[in-house]
Amino acid sequence: MIKTIPILLLSLLLSGRAFCQFGGLINKAKNKINQRVDQKVDKAMDKGLDKAEGKETAASGANVESTPQPATLTSYSKYDFVPGEQVLYAEDFAQEAVGELPTGWNSTGSGEVSTLDKFSGRWLRLHKGMSYLTANSKTFGTDYTLEFDLILQLKNNGWMYPQFLVSLVASRDLAADDNSILKDYRQFAAATATIAPFENNSSRAIFESFKEKASIFKGDLVNIGQLQNWYGTPMHVAIQVQKQRFRCWINELKAFDVPKGVPTADTMNNLRIEVGATNYAEENYGVYISNIRIATGLPDTRHKLIEEGKFTTNGILFDANSAVIRPESAGVLKEIGTALKENPSFKVRIIGHTSSDGDDAANLELSKKRAAAVKDFLGNEWKIDGDRIETEGKGETAPIADNKTKDGRAQNRRVEFIKQ
What we know:
Layout (H helix, E strand, L loop, with lengths): L6 H7 L10 H13 L2 H15 L4 H4 L24 E6 L14 E2 L3 E6 L2 E8 L3 E4 L9 E11 L10 E7 L8 H5 L5 E8 L7 E8 L2 E5 L3 E2 L11 E8 L2 E6 L2 E6 L11 E6 L10 E11 L4 H8 L1 E4 L16 H13 L5 E6 L6 H23 L6 E5 L12 H7 L1 E6 L1
Parallel strand pairs: 18-19
Antiparallel strand pairs: 1-16, 2-5, 3-4, 4-16, 5-15, 6-12, 6-16, 7-8, 7-15, 8-9, 9-10, 9-11, 12-13, 13-14, 17-20, 18-20
Helix pairs in contact: 6-7
């Protein structure tokens, strides 16, 4: 039975500009697949369709298949992403209506906020052949970070999977969500990472940037074969921009580190997302995104902690309503652990803070547990003596931003380190 396209054909499809515009090669591939699919394959695909059609729709609670192998902090030992200091835009869709496109977003077609059986929170389901702009309206500056969680619900039935494109774009004097930016995001300036999922450890990615519609940088194809191990589970995508430098991680995998790839004549001010075309029926694949966070600035962890005596971060993340530290916090914890290790006389108080979401008393207790969890991690992994660390939780009692806004609540969910 035909389950995947031969690697040779994939290489042809992913070479040069064919990566973004497969054109006639896709049609040839489809025809070849159609010619070689026999009756057994038809039956297998029918069985898969029957199973998929029996599931709930994404808007009412899609059933996303998953492999129960959660990542751990130790598996992110080489992960060095550190988020920006000031949150500019945050979106977890918690306040959005299920079944609708989020408020303030723009799209060439449709998309709907969804709940998923196996994963908490709300997710925006993205559709093939469509593009999206977020509701952000603030400029990013020259040094900034972007993070989001992504689910690729993909199961091979013989067709090529849709590509996933994420672009940092500039709109100049136009609104950040202007229709012309949605249609032609390259007209002023853009930096785009394209992910092409495949089977047989053949997934690829490429980075390209544009100025005045012209391509000014195009990197080499990058193999990200590990991607297929994460199909059907939330992946954390993190992007860091420092002037021209573009770095991108997918979970603990560093996919890109391009020193001079980002155009700097224009200031980026929005995130554009695109899902490519595919022959899979809507009920046979799913692309979901959530927990978007854009932050500006480059935190100087060691200087602020050791010399100024105080460091505050939103980059230590926890599971929802839990004190379990998420693995993508590894980069920040590495900075803090290294600073404490290099300064053995230094003592700190760790203070946990929450937003105003939820019960006051529960938030207070949760903030205490989270501060204690950070202390435990620094002791277990960095061998920092427990006598050097005190912990405290303040819950929602000491906000630094407006809890009435999504961005403010994201800023208030933080961990403080104060010199004692």
